[in-house]
Amino acid sequence: MKKHIITIAGYPGIGKSSTAKGVAQELGYEHFSSGDLMRQMAAARGLSVEEINQAAEKQKEIDFMVDHRLQKLGEERDKLVIDSRLAFHWIPDSFKVYLDLDPQSAAERTFMHIQKEGRASQTASSTEEVLKNTAERIASERKRYQILYGVDIGDKSNFDLVIDTKTNDLNQVIKIVLAEYKKWQETS
Which residues form the domain of 47? Predict the structure, then answer.
């Protein structure tokens, strides 16, 4: 049975959180961000986002904590939008969305966000630094999730909907997700 849960995945800087928040607000659903949870865990340990990803390569319990939380949310909640690279895997009966964007544009967005608003447990002095750190983070996560779960988080065939966030602005992306989610809900 289909759940009233939307999982939104993609790499850093692509607009997962902004999209998830917007979709949740439009639907009156709750929002959860595993990225926010990881940043909180990093801050609690005095680490950056990049450092906690490196630590997770050796300390599997870091990923297990986040993944367990996602599984419980999928079991216990309804009317929920989750931005997370792995939620689609843990909640297979969710509406699974993948947001796509080239790495340079994603790094530019992340750097702009860091400069404008700041970001918990993440700093950078240039777009190039963000690009380098993000590439290392993605490589770490892809490797870990492949080893731990046999999941390729970049395989777009795992998703019900793939959206390019470079050719669609945030409002367009939200509208696309809402329209496709409605169609998905109507099919058996």
Answer: 5-186
Q: What is the per-residue burial (b if ≥16 Cβ within 10 Å, else e) of 66-93? A: bbebbeebbeebeebbbbbbbbbbbbee
Token digits for 56? 């997770």
> Structurally, how many domains does the chain consist of?
1
Look at 44-58, 83-97, 136-150 and tell me which has the smallest mean pLDDT: 44-58
Report the Cα 173 to chain-centroid distance in Å. Answer: 15
Average pLDDT over residues 99-106: 87
3-state secondary structure string across 53-121: HHHHHHCHHHHHHHHHHHHHHHHHCCCEEEECCCHHHHCCCCEEEEEECCHHHHHHHHHHHHHHCCECC
CATH number at residue 95: 3.40.50.300
Taking the C-alpha atoms of residue 94 and residue 5, their distance in angstroms, rounded to an integer, is 5
DSSP 8-state symbol, 124:
-
**What global pTM score does this model have?**
0.85
- C-beta separation of 9 from 16 below 8 A: yes
Phi, psi of 173 (to 5 degrees): -60, -45
